[in-house]
Specification:
Largest interface: A-B, 48 and 44 residues
Number of strands of chain A: 10
Strand content of chain A: 15-25%
CATH topology of the largest domain in chain B: Butyryl-CoA Dehydrogenase, subunit A, domain 3
Oligomer: heterotetramer
Distance between the termini of chain B: 58 Å
Distance between the termini of chain A: 28 Å
CATH superfamily of the largest domain in chain A: Butyryl-CoA Dehydrogenase, subunit A, domain 3
Shape of chain B: globular
Radius of gyration of chain B: 23 Å
Helix content of chain A: 40-55%
Helix content of chain B: 40-55%
Radius of gyration of chain A: 21 Å
CATH architecture of the largest domain in chain A: Up-down Bundle
């Protein structure tokens, strides 16, 4: 597939742009933060997104979606990223719907995907058990019991865990933490007995949750992927999550870069616009190159999913690592080039800085993905 | 017994008697003694300790006695500091008056001004703030716009300042103002002192991306300032400003890592933190790429610390003081920023919490300190300004 | 059968008949066919192959037939290239005349000049070199000093050029000269063609840090050039120069790694080389820091390759051609330099030999290629010039 | 010790400076190269250095030296580095004399050190067996025989191996390549039977040699350090080699930097000196910081040896890694900032570029030393 949007995708992007700019500027995130909104997103805004059909973008038509593909979802995420819009689209659609599409039984798909497409359910992935992304480092146990399975363990940084209806819990049936084998992805009702959800408030003003499972019950039929082979479907889900997150980061990077360039043109120091100083100009030009390369890897990774290519994993690690690094660079330069004003909470710059770090820590930092890329490429 | 040895014994004895036991314990931040008209002493011993020290002029030990200082020479002061350190005494007074304004007054003020302003500084009676930066000026400090018009018997000050630390608690301000708008920008600036309770002065605290801060915006709306409050010559204030700035730069550079070489200690040490959060394998940090980055960082910290030491040794050996402060400001602050980025990388999501009890206190602190570190390379002259200074003044590159 | 399919079949048949079998084997560098008056054909088939291709105008397949070209459209040319690739045919002719001068003549020259100069280029009869850079000018190409004085019936050229590739083998030169020393520098330059055998032209090869090179210094001492050899308008040569430079930039950027993503193949691939020289552990490069650097490099190569592809796709989709060539020149050449530094790091002392049989041939080559790569970010406009172009023309930053 | 030279050291430095500038400018190295000098250095020049007492600088007075310490040798090496002067001082004095001083028997010291101090012997360390520094990765065997020991194996990159009178051969008595235990440092006559020396010509125009030992005989009395515990003394020797080499690199760095700054002041482009462009000026300022830090670590490492501190190893790894990196940076910037002229062999720039890479590959590249530093510091 060519590395350009087709007409339909471009239209979707334009529409998403208009909607987000109108309904969800950065001030919306600021408001959520200042009000200490317990959901971490605006339910009314989410309802409007549902009406626009966004939760169904990647879902096949037979399950109530519009089957627009990951490139379609990507451009929406990118537009949301521009204003750092918080919503359950990542947890529920990018991750949740992907999980169902990739690994649920036909019965479960029929039951859940239309609910997601209709915005009636929020799904969250309970994966991490430590502060750094480590998808096989799972100690949470899933063991058989008289009426199915019992889950016990502690999860951290569960995105939208505090508002989820259903949890996809990565648990171990056999082996030791670190083993790729022995994992199963159980579907657990967030309101079930033995599930204790503690919301956490992150620096990027979004919410996540720590979740303790204390013998919470799960059904052996309600799983994603194969029993004890859950890592296969988990990797596929995570790659979609990484790529979609990279698309969101791209949007934020674009705004951070554009804002900075604009400031370089207008801000006067020593009687000249500061962008006329070659030291800053060269750094801006280097940033331009990094941003351009970032656009390419995101587009390529999205189309890798849509084309069902065999190098989705490489594309995902490439995209996530590069977008981590570029967002890091641009957010630092944005602040430094704005000078003191960038340090004030009144400016939006801090929001981009904080989001850059939380996004980087989500689903693998750059070192994680360089290591993974090298392994995938055989060295 | 040498004079110095005798001084040490007397000092030790005096401290034993005059430093209250509670002043020999680690100081919580909210017990920092800033003095001033409206000082509140959470711990009454703070006031006792301040008054005792001030009575000997030891809040400003090397200032001349005639202005209330301790009148100590270098060697005596060294002994005083050692003895204070020996009993882990808290600083009796934290004061921009002592750190910044005092040295400038000693160099540039009239005899009358010194007699008037310095003793209350030593005694912690007047708390000062600094009015330098302006919203529009940024790195181009000399482009400041706050003006003081000569109204015959007083100056009329209008304008605003930004990044005035603790302006909302200060009694007086030392302030750069434009007194000649026609002159080239460096030649129309004067150095003015005035009371923060003067009609027309208002302040507004600044919220930073890292949270609340000591910084304020300060506004001047037709503030009347007596003409005798001018320090130095009219329109020659830039000379005083430069002397103060050099001083500030050195202070901020010190925020970076010291000569120890570890690049931070305990829960701020990247290697300690990495072992805790990223795990160990065979006694090593488990993630080899992270380990490599940390080694590179710590080695740079050690090299930087050795350079600070070398510069000090060269100065002691009589070498002319190099223009090192710009290098220290630049490298030290960039290094401190890198340290916090490494801590974030090592700690993952545990260094990205904002509040809630699911994070440990030091974790939440690191998040804020990381954000705060971003200002290091802006305040006190940006990194770009320091690089300009190195290029032009140290290397002699042409304009 | 479509026209294109028929073209393919005819082409395939023609190539089968007209491409000598020895021309379908990998080409040693010393058999590159550059044509020209003094061409020496180590392999006589090279001459046959050149003449055959030239007879159809296929050495310049898309130039108009009236000037000796092949007159092919884009689609036909694509098929020709595919068919040439299918039989692994060697390039029939390597020629700055075709790559650089021809396109400029097609755009800027008079009808008469096109008829005169283009056909011998197509036939490989005249070998051209490029006279752009001067010893004093460097990045400031437009600051060139070689002057051509109007002597009534001819121009008198005096000055010197540097970095003229193969000047010592070339028959003619296309040359930027100053024709109006009074005008602003961009407005006094003209584009002149002349015979390298003209009295007063001398050349001297340049030894590079990497060894011998195709580059020469070229000196002009009262060289008489007929007035009809001026291309385009007098003093408007800069327009032609800019068009040519853009082209050159794109060519040099291509020296970097392609879209494959490996960052080089075989014994130039950092990952392959690292396994061989730094060793393997569990199928991985044994040195984890080196492995991390190589992964980072290869990922950047892949991202760069994808960006080249995206730009091409956007152009196909009708987007206006972006000012991408500066980005490609900058990033591609810096990336190529980094690749060679990684190879050195991986290979240690085996990539640092200069001669002697204790090194393998490819090892000695890598040493030279590493040194040669350092010129990539200088030739065809330095990296600094490319960054300036991006800053000003792409981002619109002010002067 | 204070990080400044004392008066004696400064005098030595000034004298060395004057001598080297006069007798051995960069053109001397160019001449050696163009003449394909088989020794790799100028014997007459070496004789003059001997007369100045340089080979005896670190040697105690009782063995015929001047006991001036490593800081003294360091400033001489630094001055030689400024003009890339080739001489056997590194192989014979920095490494050879250090080896004897650290690990030879009193008899051997008395026999050899005065010879070295008098410039009568050249010594070389035969260590490496692969292209990347790996001091324990030794396959060369040293096994007992009727008349002592027999050495067999292949060594590469033996500095001054082609002119040495005596070789210090790192051989293995027990264990496997990679083991720290089991190494012994044998002293082998370079002219002994079974020693085959093949000179190699490196990119920096200095010589080294590949040496094959085919049952070459060695005496059990003629060893450096303890048998099978040779790694202890080897590490100490190597740390001195690394620190001295760092001092040499510092001299080269200083010249490369000074030359570049001078060029920035004088070279005109677009009607201005190029150093007035902020992009270049900021890079020059950054280089200044790196050079200043480099000076500090070299001085500290030299005095660590002289003060017999317990952190010589850390100081050595710090110095070598930093000087590698700084020399890399400065040599690249020197070339780039000089533009095309820097690429010509006529300019001296290429010599600095080439020396930077060979020096970096000698006794450990930066990654090696970062790894070692982290290990020494316990993480």
């Amino acid at each position: 597939m060519a590395l350009v949007l087709n007409e339909d995708q471009q239209q979707l992007k334009d529409a998403a742009h208009a909607f987000i700019q109108d309904k969800s500027p950065v001030s919306a995130l600021r408001k959520l933060r200042d009000e200490k909104n317990p959901d971490g997103f605006d339910r009314a805004l989410w309802q409007e997104m549902v009406e626009l059909g966004w939760p169904g973008i990647i879902i096949p038509e037979e399950y109530g979606g519009s089957e627009f593909g990951y490139t379609g979802l990507g451009v929406v995420l990118q537009e949301m990223g521009r204003t750092l819009t918080a919503s359950p689209i990542m947890s529920t659609v990018l991750i949740g719907a992907s999980a169902y599409m990739l690994g649920a039984s036909e019965v479960r798909k029929k039951a859940m995907l239309p609910e997601i497409a209709a915005g009636k359910k929020i799904v969250a992935l309970a994966l991490e058990e430590g502060p750094r992304h480590a998808p096989y480092n799972i100690a949470t146990r899933g063991g058989p019991s008289v009426d199915g399975y019992r889950i016990s363990g502690e999860k951290t940084f569960v995105l939208d865990g505090q508002v989820a209806d259903e949890l996809i819990v990565v648990a171990r049936e056999s082996g030791e933490p670190g083993d790729r084998d022995g994992l199963t992805l159980f579907l657990v009702d967030a309101n079930a007995a033995g599930v204790k959800i503690t919301p956490t408030r992150m620096a990027d003003s979004r919410n996540a949750a720590n979740i303790t499972f204390n013998g919470a019950s799960a059904s052996g039929d309600k799983i994603i992927g194969e029993k004890k082979k859950g890592a296969d479907v988990l990797d596929a889900i995570l790659d979609r999550a990484r790529i979609g997150l990279a698309a969101e980061m791209l949007g934020a990077i674009e705004v951070a870069f554009e804002t900075t360039v604009e400031y370089l043109k207008t801000r006067q120091q020593f009687g000249r616009p500061i962008g006329s100083f070659q030291g800053l100009a060269h750094r801006a030009a280097e940033m331009f190159c990094e941003v351009e390369l970032s656009k390419s890897v995101v587009l390529d990774a999205l189309s890798a999913i849509d084309d069902n290519r065999d190098d989705i994993a490489q594309a995902a690690s490439l995209a996530k690592a590069r977008l981590n690094d570029t967002f890091h660079l641009i957010s630092c330069e944005m602040l430094q080039m704005h000078g003191g004003i960038g340090m004030t909470d009144e400016a939006d710059i801090g929001f981009y800085m904080k989001r850059a770090r939380v996004a980087a820590a989500t689903f693998g930092d750059s070192a994680f993905h360089r290591d993974r890329y090298a392994t995938l490429e055989g060295y | 017994m040498s004079d110095l040895e005798q001084f040490r014994q007397e000092t030790r004895a005096w401290l034993e008697e005059n430093c209250p036991p509670s002043m020999r314990t680690p100081m919580p931040e909210d017990e920092t003694c800033w003095g001033g008209r409206n000082a509140v002493y959470k711990n009454p011993d703070s006031k006792v300790w301040l008054d005792n020290m001030a009575s000997r002029g030891w809040t400003a030990p090397m200032w001349p006695k005639e202005y209330g200082g301790g009148g100590l020479n270098k060697d005596e002061n060294k002994i005083l500091q050692q003895e204070l350190g020996r009993i882990r005494a808290r600083p009796a007074l934290s004061s921009f008056g002592i750190w910044m304004l005092g040295p400038a007054l000693l160099e540039f003020a009239s005899e009358e001004q010194k007699k008037h302003y310095l003793p209350p500084i030593v005694r912690g009676e007047i708390r000062w703030c600094q009015g330098y930066s302006e919203p529009g000026a940024g790195s181009d400090l000399a482009g400041l716009q706050t003006k003081a018009e000569d109204m015959g018997d007083h100056y009329l000050v209008n304008g605003s300042k930004i990044w005035t630390s603790y302006a909302n608690f200060a009694d007086w301000i030392f302030c750069l103002v434009r007194t000649n708008p026609q002159a080239p920008k460096h030649e129309g600036i004067s150095f003015l002192l005035f009371d923060m309770t003067s009609p027309g002065v208002t302040t507004k605290p600044i919220q930073l991306i890292s949270g609340s801060s000591p910084f304020c915006e300060t506004f001047f709306d037709n503030v009347k300032v007596p003409k005798e409050n001018l320090v130095g010559e009219l329109n020659k204030g830039w000379t005083i400003a430069k002397a103060l700035l050099q001083h500030e730069r050195t202070m901020i550079a010190g925020m970076g890592s010291g000569p120890g070489g570890g690049g931070g200690s305990g829960l701020r040490s990247p290697s300690v933190v990495a072992k805790k959060y990223a795990g160990e394998a065979d006694g090593r940090i488990a993630d080899p790429a992270l380990r490599d980055s940390i080694a590179a960082h710590n080695m740079n910290s050690r090299a930087f610390g050795l350079t600070v030491q070398r510069t000090t040794d060269e100065a002691k050996a009589g070498a002319p003081p190099g223009p090192a402060s710009s290098m220290f400001k630049y490298y030290g602050t960039e290094q401190n920023k890198r340290k916090y980025e490494l801590l974030l990388q090592a700690m993952g999501t545990q260094a990205l919490g904002w509040e809630d009890s699911t994070f440990e206190e030091h974790e939440l602190s690191i998040t804020r300190e990381w954000l705060r570190s971003k200002a290091n390379s802006i305040e006190g002259g940006t990194s770009e300004v320091q690089l300009n200074i190195i290029a032009k003044r140290v290397l002699g590159l042409p304009e």
